[in-house]
Amino acid sequence: MWLWYSLRARSLFYFSASNPSIPTGGMMGESKFDVLALLPPEVRPRCLLVRVPVRFNELQEKLTAHGIDYPFIAKPDVGERGWRVQRICNPAELKHYCEESESVPVDFIIQEFVSLPLEFGIFYERLPSRAKGRVTSVTAKEFLSVVGDGQSTLRELIADQPRARLHADNLSTRFRNELSHILPAGERKELESIGNHCRGTIFLDANHLITDGLHESFDRISKQVPGFFFGRYDLRCASLDDLQNGCVQVLELNGCGAEPAHIYHPGASLIAALRTLIRHWQVLFVISLENHQRGVPYLSLRDAWRYYRKARALQ
Fold it and tell me: Which of 52, 224, 226, 299 gets the most CB atoms within 10 Å of its CB?
Protein backbone atom coordinates (compact mmCIF):
# COMPACT_ATOMS: atom_id res chain seq x y z
CA MET A 1 0.00 0.00 0.00
CA TRP A 2 2.80 2.43 0.88
CA LEU A 3 4.53 2.00 -2.48
CA TRP A 4 1.25 2.42 -4.36
CA TYR A 5 0.33 5.60 -2.52
CA SER A 6 3.85 6.97 -2.81
CA LEU A 7 4.36 6.40 -6.53
CA ARG A 8 0.96 7.84 -7.38
CA ALA A 9 1.64 10.79 -5.10
CA ARG A 10 4.91 11.64 -6.81
CA SER A 11 3.12 14.43 -8.69
CA LEU A 12 3.20 16.69 -5.64
CA PHE A 13 7.00 16.96 -5.86
CA TYR A 14 6.82 19.53 -8.60
CA PHE A 15 6.23 23.26 -8.82
CA SER A 16 3.25 23.09 -11.17
CA ALA A 17 2.23 21.81 -14.56
CA SER A 18 3.93 24.82 -16.14
CA ASN A 19 7.28 23.95 -14.58
CA PRO A 20 7.26 20.25 -13.72
CA SER A 21 11.00 19.62 -13.61
CA ILE A 22 12.06 21.22 -10.33
CA PRO A 23 11.56 19.09 -7.21
CA THR A 24 10.18 20.49 -3.99
CA GLY A 25 11.36 17.80 -1.66
CA GLY A 26 10.14 14.28 -2.19
CA MET A 27 11.15 10.74 -1.53
CA MET A 28 14.45 10.05 -3.24
CA GLY A 29 17.05 11.72 -5.38
CA GLU A 30 15.91 15.32 -4.97
CA SER A 31 18.41 18.09 -4.37
CA LYS A 32 18.18 19.34 -0.78
CA PHE A 33 19.79 22.59 -1.88
CA ASP A 34 17.11 23.22 -4.51
CA VAL A 35 14.42 22.59 -1.91
CA LEU A 36 16.02 24.91 0.65
CA ALA A 37 16.28 27.63 -1.99
CA LEU A 38 12.47 27.68 -2.22
CA LEU A 39 12.06 28.70 1.42
CA PRO A 40 11.43 32.31 2.44
CA PRO A 41 14.79 33.98 3.23
CA GLU A 42 13.81 34.80 6.81
CA VAL A 43 13.54 31.10 7.76
CA ARG A 44 16.47 29.83 5.68
CA PRO A 45 20.03 29.54 7.07
CA ARG A 46 22.90 30.55 4.78
CA CYS A 47 23.80 27.65 2.50
CA LEU A 48 26.38 26.86 -0.16
CA LEU A 49 26.22 24.04 -2.71
CA VAL A 50 29.61 22.38 -3.30
CA ARG A 51 30.16 20.47 -6.52
CA VAL A 52 32.69 17.65 -6.46
CA PRO A 53 35.52 17.46 -7.22
CA VAL A 54 36.28 20.62 -5.27
CA ARG A 55 39.38 22.74 -4.86
CA PHE A 56 39.83 23.26 -1.15
CA ASN A 57 41.34 26.76 -1.37
CA GLU A 58 38.52 27.95 -3.60
CA LEU A 59 35.98 26.51 -1.19
CA GLN A 60 37.53 28.46 1.68
CA GLU A 61 37.12 31.65 -0.35
CA LYS A 62 33.47 30.82 -1.09
CA LEU A 63 32.78 30.31 2.60
CA THR A 64 34.10 33.77 3.33
CA ALA A 65 32.10 35.27 0.48
CA HIS A 66 28.90 33.66 1.78
CA GLY A 67 29.55 34.72 5.37
CA ILE A 68 29.69 31.17 6.70
CA ASP A 69 32.03 30.64 9.66
CA TYR A 70 33.18 27.56 11.53
CA PRO A 71 31.50 25.52 12.86
CA PHE A 72 28.97 24.65 10.17
CA ILE A 73 27.07 21.60 8.96
CA ALA A 74 28.12 19.62 5.89
CA LYS A 75 25.71 17.13 4.36
CA PRO A 76 25.15 15.42 1.01
CA ASP A 77 22.88 17.22 -1.42
CA VAL A 78 21.15 13.87 -1.94
CA GLY A 79 20.75 11.53 1.01
CA GLU A 80 18.63 10.64 3.98
CA ARG A 81 18.55 9.55 7.63
CA GLY A 82 21.64 11.43 8.69
CA TRP A 83 23.97 9.86 6.12
CA ARG A 84 27.28 11.77 6.16
CA VAL A 85 25.78 14.74 8.01
CA GLN A 86 28.66 16.20 9.98
CA ARG A 87 29.45 19.24 12.07
CA ILE A 88 32.68 20.76 10.70
CA CYS A 89 34.69 22.71 13.26
CA ASN A 90 37.92 23.58 11.45
CA PRO A 91 39.67 23.56 8.02
CA ALA A 92 41.26 20.16 8.64
CA GLU A 93 37.85 18.55 9.14
CA LEU A 94 36.52 20.28 6.04
CA LYS A 95 39.43 19.07 3.93
CA HIS A 96 38.86 15.50 5.13
CA TYR A 97 35.14 15.77 4.33
CA CYS A 98 35.94 17.04 0.83
CA GLU A 99 38.26 14.11 0.20
CA GLU A 100 35.62 11.62 1.36
CA SER A 101 33.00 13.28 -0.86
CA GLU A 102 35.17 12.82 -3.93
CA SER A 103 35.53 9.12 -3.22
CA VAL A 104 31.74 8.61 -3.06
CA PRO A 105 31.27 10.97 -5.13
CA VAL A 106 28.35 13.24 -4.31
CA ASP A 107 27.83 17.00 -4.20
CA PHE A 108 27.28 18.40 -0.74
CA ILE A 109 25.82 21.37 1.09
CA ILE A 110 27.50 23.60 3.60
CA GLN A 111 24.93 25.15 5.91
CA GLU A 112 25.61 27.62 8.67
CA PHE A 113 25.31 26.04 12.10
CA VAL A 114 22.08 27.12 13.75
CA SER A 115 22.81 27.26 17.47
CA LEU A 116 19.22 27.89 18.58
CA PRO A 117 18.46 25.56 21.51
CA LEU A 118 15.20 23.86 20.46
CA GLU A 119 14.74 21.51 17.52
CA PHE A 120 11.42 20.25 16.19
CA GLY A 121 9.90 18.36 13.30
CA ILE A 122 6.70 20.09 12.11
CA PHE A 123 4.48 18.14 9.73
CA TYR A 124 2.22 20.23 7.50
CA GLU A 125 -0.45 19.35 4.97
CA ARG A 126 -2.84 21.27 2.70
CA LEU A 127 -5.10 20.07 -0.09
CA PRO A 128 -4.50 22.13 -3.27
CA SER A 129 -8.24 22.85 -3.36
CA ARG A 130 -8.23 24.28 0.16
CA ALA A 131 -7.30 27.81 1.16
CA LYS A 132 -5.80 26.76 4.47
CA GLY A 133 -3.57 23.94 5.64
CA ARG A 134 -2.73 22.60 9.07
CA VAL A 135 0.00 21.15 11.24
CA THR A 136 -0.65 17.47 11.93
CA SER A 137 2.42 16.49 13.94
CA VAL A 138 4.97 18.15 16.22
CA THR A 139 8.07 16.22 17.24
CA ALA A 140 10.45 17.57 19.85
CA LYS A 141 14.03 16.33 19.64
CA GLU A 142 16.17 15.47 22.65
CA PHE A 143 19.80 15.28 21.63
CA LEU A 144 22.14 12.54 22.76
CA SER A 145 23.77 13.68 25.99
CA VAL A 146 25.05 12.55 29.39
CA VAL A 147 24.72 14.13 32.83
CA GLY A 148 27.67 14.26 35.22
CA ASP A 149 27.58 12.83 38.73
CA GLY A 150 30.81 14.39 39.99
CA GLN A 151 32.58 11.01 40.07
CA SER A 152 32.40 9.33 36.66
CA THR A 153 34.60 10.15 33.70
CA LEU A 154 33.08 10.98 30.33
CA ARG A 155 34.14 7.53 29.12
CA GLU A 156 32.21 5.91 31.97
CA LEU A 157 29.16 8.10 31.44
CA ILE A 158 29.05 7.10 27.77
CA ALA A 159 29.34 3.43 28.71
CA ASP A 160 26.51 3.74 31.23
CA GLN A 161 24.08 5.57 28.91
CA PRO A 162 22.22 3.00 26.74
CA ARG A 163 21.92 5.18 23.63
CA ALA A 164 25.42 6.63 23.94
CA ARG A 165 26.86 3.15 24.35
CA LEU A 166 25.61 2.26 20.86
CA HIS A 167 27.78 5.07 19.47
CA ALA A 168 30.75 4.51 21.78
CA ASP A 169 33.34 4.06 19.02
CA ASN A 170 32.47 7.30 17.23
CA LEU A 171 32.10 9.23 20.48
CA SER A 172 35.43 7.94 21.78
CA THR A 173 37.10 9.27 18.64
CA ARG A 174 35.31 12.61 18.72
CA PHE A 175 35.92 13.24 22.42
CA ARG A 176 39.26 11.46 22.72
CA ASN A 177 40.81 14.40 24.56
CA GLU A 178 37.98 14.58 27.10
CA LEU A 179 37.32 10.95 27.96
CA SER A 180 39.13 11.14 31.31
CA HIS A 181 37.38 14.35 32.31
CA ILE A 182 34.96 14.10 35.26
CA LEU A 183 31.75 16.04 34.72
CA PRO A 184 30.47 17.99 37.74
CA ALA A 185 27.27 16.67 39.29
CA GLY A 186 24.24 17.82 37.31
CA GLU A 187 26.20 19.17 34.33
CA ARG A 188 24.79 18.04 31.00
CA LYS A 189 27.11 17.46 28.06
CA GLU A 190 25.68 17.23 24.57
CA LEU A 191 27.36 14.43 22.61
CA GLU A 192 25.59 14.86 19.29
CA SER A 193 24.16 18.01 17.70
CA ILE A 194 22.59 16.29 14.68
CA GLY A 195 18.89 15.72 15.37
CA ASN A 196 18.55 12.34 13.71
CA HIS A 197 17.18 9.17 15.29
CA CYS A 198 20.09 7.08 14.06
CA ARG A 199 22.49 9.54 15.73
CA GLY A 200 21.00 8.90 19.17
CA THR A 201 18.37 11.66 19.22
CA ILE A 202 15.13 10.84 21.04
CA PHE A 203 11.92 11.82 19.23
CA LEU A 204 9.17 13.02 21.58
CA ASP A 205 5.47 13.51 20.90
CA ALA A 206 4.84 17.26 21.24
CA ASN A 207 1.43 17.41 19.59
CA HIS A 208 0.16 19.36 22.60
CA LEU A 209 1.90 22.34 20.98
CA ILE A 210 -0.49 22.32 18.02
CA THR A 211 -2.60 25.49 18.19
CA ASP A 212 -4.49 27.75 15.82
CA GLY A 213 -1.47 30.03 15.91
CA LEU A 214 0.85 27.21 14.84
CA HIS A 215 -1.48 26.33 11.95
CA GLU A 216 -1.49 29.95 10.81
CA SER A 217 2.28 30.38 11.10
CA PHE A 218 3.15 27.33 9.01
CA ASP A 219 0.37 28.04 6.57
CA ARG A 220 2.01 31.42 5.98
CA ILE A 221 5.45 29.87 5.49
CA SER A 222 4.25 26.95 3.36
CA LYS A 223 2.27 29.08 0.92
CA GLN A 224 5.53 30.83 0.02
CA VAL A 225 7.04 27.51 -1.14
CA PRO A 226 5.88 26.85 -4.72
CA GLY A 227 4.04 23.57 -5.13
CA PHE A 228 4.43 22.48 -1.50
CA PHE A 229 1.41 20.83 0.11
CA PHE A 230 2.71 18.00 2.28
CA GLY A 231 5.84 17.34 4.32
CA ARG A 232 7.93 17.95 7.39
CA TYR A 233 9.98 20.95 8.39
CA ASP A 234 13.05 20.09 10.46
CA LEU A 235 13.86 23.32 12.24
CA ARG A 236 15.36 25.10 15.22
CA CYS A 237 14.01 27.98 17.26
CA ALA A 238 14.84 29.99 20.37
CA SER A 239 11.62 29.42 22.31
CA LEU A 240 8.15 27.90 22.18
CA ASP A 241 6.72 31.35 21.54
CA ASP A 242 8.99 31.72 18.51
CA LEU A 243 7.83 28.31 17.27
CA GLN A 244 4.19 29.37 17.54
CA ASN A 245 4.92 32.58 15.65
CA GLY A 246 6.96 30.91 12.89
CA CYS A 247 10.20 32.61 13.96
CA VAL A 248 12.30 29.57 13.05
CA GLN A 249 15.29 28.44 11.02
CA VAL A 250 14.52 25.52 8.72
CA LEU A 251 17.33 22.98 8.45
CA GLU A 252 15.53 20.76 5.94
CA LEU A 253 12.16 20.47 4.25
CA ASN A 254 11.12 16.92 3.37
CA GLY A 255 8.23 15.99 1.09
CA CYS A 256 6.21 12.82 0.71
CA GLY A 257 9.00 10.58 1.99
CA ALA A 258 8.78 12.33 5.36
CA GLU A 259 7.07 10.84 8.38
CA PRO A 260 5.15 12.42 11.26
CA ALA A 261 8.01 11.57 13.59
CA HIS A 262 6.09 11.86 16.85
CA ILE A 263 5.14 8.21 16.31
CA TYR A 264 8.65 7.28 17.49
CA HIS A 265 8.03 8.57 21.01
CA PRO A 266 9.45 5.99 23.47
CA GLY A 267 6.72 3.53 24.43
CA ALA A 268 4.28 4.77 21.79
CA SER A 269 1.68 2.35 20.45
CA LEU A 270 2.52 0.51 17.23
CA ILE A 271 -1.16 0.38 16.27
CA ALA A 272 -1.54 4.12 16.81
CA ALA A 273 1.59 4.75 14.72
CA LEU A 274 0.25 2.69 11.82
CA ARG A 275 -3.07 4.52 11.97
CA THR A 276 -1.23 7.84 11.83
CA LEU A 277 0.87 6.76 8.84
CA ILE A 278 -2.13 5.41 6.94
CA ARG A 279 -4.07 8.64 7.50
CA HIS A 280 -1.13 10.67 6.19
CA TRP A 281 -0.76 8.43 3.15
CA GLN A 282 -4.46 8.84 2.41
CA VAL A 283 -4.10 12.63 2.49
CA LEU A 284 -1.01 12.36 0.32
CA PHE A 285 -2.97 10.35 -2.23
CA VAL A 286 -5.76 12.95 -2.37
CA ILE A 287 -3.21 15.74 -2.85
CA SER A 288 -1.68 13.76 -5.69
CA LEU A 289 -5.04 13.28 -7.38
CA GLU A 290 -5.86 16.98 -7.11
CA ASN A 291 -2.47 17.96 -8.52
CA HIS A 292 -2.87 15.50 -11.37
CA GLN A 293 -6.27 16.96 -12.21
CA ARG A 294 -4.49 20.31 -12.49
CA GLY A 295 -2.11 18.90 -15.11
CA VAL A 296 0.84 17.65 -13.03
CA PRO A 297 1.98 14.28 -14.46
CA TYR A 298 2.51 11.17 -12.41
CA LEU A 299 5.98 9.70 -12.21
CA SER A 300 6.32 6.63 -14.40
CA LEU A 301 7.35 3.33 -12.86
CA ARG A 302 10.51 3.40 -14.99
CA ASP A 303 11.51 6.83 -13.67
CA ALA A 304 10.64 5.79 -10.12
CA TRP A 305 12.96 2.81 -10.43
CA ARG A 306 15.70 5.05 -11.83
CA TYR A 307 15.35 7.48 -8.91
CA TYR A 308 15.43 4.59 -6.46
CA ARG A 309 18.58 3.03 -7.91
CA LYS A 310 20.34 6.39 -7.96
CA ALA A 311 19.47 7.06 -4.33
CA ARG A 312 20.49 3.60 -3.15
CA ALA A 313 23.81 3.81 -4.97
CA LEU A 314 24.79 6.75 -2.75
CA GLN A 315 24.09 5.02 0.55
Answer: 299
pTM, 2 dp: 0.85
Q: What are 23-73's pLDDT values in tens digits? A: 344 455 678 899 999 999 999 999 999 988 888 888 988 999 999 999 999
* Structural domain spans, the chain: 2-45+116-143+198-313, 47-113, 147-191
Q: What is the pLDDT of residues 204-229, one digit of tens each?
A: 999 999 999 999 999 999 999 999 99
Q: What is the pLDDT, as a whole number, of residue 224?
A: 96
DSSP code per residue over the chain:
-HHHHHHHGGGGGEEETTEEEEE-S-SSS--HHHHHHTS-GGG---EEEEPSS--HHHHHHHHHHHT--SSEEEEESS--TTTT-EEE-SHHHHHHHHHHHHHTT--EEEEE----SEEEEEEEE--TT-S--EEEEEEEEE--EEE--SSSBHHHHHHHSHHHHHTHHHHHHHTTTTTTPBPPTT-EEE---S--GGGTPEEEE-GGG--HHHHHHHHHHHTTSTT--EEEEEEEES-HHHHHHT--EEEEEE-TT---GGGGSTT--HHHHHHHHHHHHHHHHHHHHHHHHTTPPPPPHHHHHHHHHHHHHT-
What is the predicted pLDDT for the residue at 111?
A: 95
